Amino acid sequence: MPADTRTPVTLVTGFLGSGKTTLLNRLLADPATPPTAVIVNEFGALGIDGRLVVGASDEVIELRNGCICCEVREDLRRTVIELLQKRARWIRPLRFDRLVVETSGLAAPGPLVQTFLLDPGLAAATRVDGVVALAHAGLVVAQLAAHPEVPAQLACADRILLNHLDHADDVEAAEAAVRAVAPLAEVVRSVRAEVAVAPLLNIGGADPSRWVLPPIVTHSAGVVTASFRGGAIELSRLKMYLQFVASRRGWEVLRLKGIFRCPGIAAAVVAQGVHQWLELGPGAMPAPAESALVVIGRGIHVEELRRGWDAIQ
User: Fold this and answer.
1) Which residues contact 97 (CB under 8 A, 6 or more apart)?
2) Are strands 159-163 and 126-136 parallel, antiparallel or unpaired?
3) Fewer Cβ neighbours under 10 Å: the N or C end of the chain?
4) CA 59, 65, 69, 74 torsion: positive or negative?
5) Given this model, what pLDDT does residue 103 score?
6) Could you give the C-alpha distances from 140 to 195, 201, 217, 276, in angstroms and in order?
7) Which of 168, 111, 107, 159 is CA-nearest to residue 136?
8) What is the pLDDT of residues 238-291, one digit of tens each?
9) Which residues of the chain, if any, have pLDDT below 70?
């Protein structure tokens, strides 16, 4: 059989806050990783994930304001074709050997796999090398019951990273819940997505039937996205505001991400949050021209969030 010269594609999926961007940064920083183009899906209109990718450049493309498994599937197809065309051009070609697609935390990978397998143009130029899913070890049991996206993400995976072990009270129960919905996937335990990168990029397997593709995937009810932009923010005021957001009773903060410019600090200040857990610290990139915050959750009062945001400007 002749060698398959199509561009390998790795799909990275997982619910909000599971560690997808952290894994992506580890992958891109590993010297053993071949030249890679990245497509990042943002659920809201304001792009945060793409800027959290260390060394983000022309090879990192954001698809915003929609879920990649439904609203922006055509955008995905067009973006992949454009990347391949840029690689084939004679002048200043875009150099990459593989493609990684990081889905929104609210996306199911099944429709994406189908897009790559069934679209004639994509099927001729690319092959799905594998699906890597991440699960939050401390939250996955509850998430499997509350969010239909989670079992769809795990059931479609070839490799599953049971991540955030340091935030889990019962790791064995978490792994058992994961294996119940994905009995054929390899499960690897991790903290901050610290795993060997090579096995994630060379899954192979030519049989498309290895993926479980649910025919219908619904999204969690009542999920809203609030996005804010602004100028420089005093660090003390920013801390107070984010602590209020994370601890507000009656809100379910599924994901919080922010990149901020703070006076007197040369580096970007980056916020990451899931439910009541919140982390704030220096980022690997310079301070941005403007501050930006995205909050995804249920029961969130967007106008209350906006009033607080305006108050700290």
Assistant:
1) 7, 8, 34, 35, 36
2) parallel
3) N
4) negative
5) 84
6) 19, 24, 18, 15
7) 168
8) 999 998 888 886 677 877 878 899 999 998 898 877 777 788 888 877 888 889
9) 1-2, 42-73, 205-219, 221-222, 249-250
CB-CB neighbours of 309 under 10 Å: 19
DSSP state of 166: G
Pick the closest to residue 288 from 259, 313, 309 (CA basis).
Answer: 259
Beta bridge partners of 258: 271, 293
Q: What is the pLDDT of residue 136?
A: 96
Closest CA to 192 of 166, 153, 216: 166
Closest CA to 61 of 100, 14, 119, 21: 100
Backbone angles phi, psi at 288, to 5 degrees: -75, 165
pTM value?
Answer: 0.73
What are the residues whose beta carbons fall under 8 Å from the beta carbon of 101, sequence distance 6 or more?
Answer: 9, 10, 11, 12, 38, 39, 41, 68, 76, 112
